[in-house]
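User: Before I run my own analysis I want an independent prediction to cross-check against. Here's the chain; please return only the C-alpha cells and, at the end, one sentence I can use as a sanity check.
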Amino acid sequence: MSLQELKEQAFKLSVRDRLSLISAIIESLQEMPSSSPERSRAIGRMRGLLKTDRSAPTDEEVVTLLEERQVEKYLG
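Assistant: C-alpha cells:
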C-alpha cells in the first residue's frame, strides 16, 4: 500500500481509530534505536558551517536588513 493510499484510508477511520493509529505510530517511533552519536556529529558539522568571524547583527541592523529586502522584493 502506498503512503497516499494509507492516508486516504486513515481519513475513512473514526476519530477514535485515528487516535489509536497515532498512538501506534508514536510507539513505533519510540521503539526505534536512537542514533545519538550520528546526530551529534551532524549537529557539530552544521554548527561549523554556521560559524563566522562577524558578530551577530543588532536589532536595528536586522530591521534595516529586512526593510532593504522588502524594498528589493516589491520595488526592485
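Sanity check: The first helix runs from residue 3 to 12.
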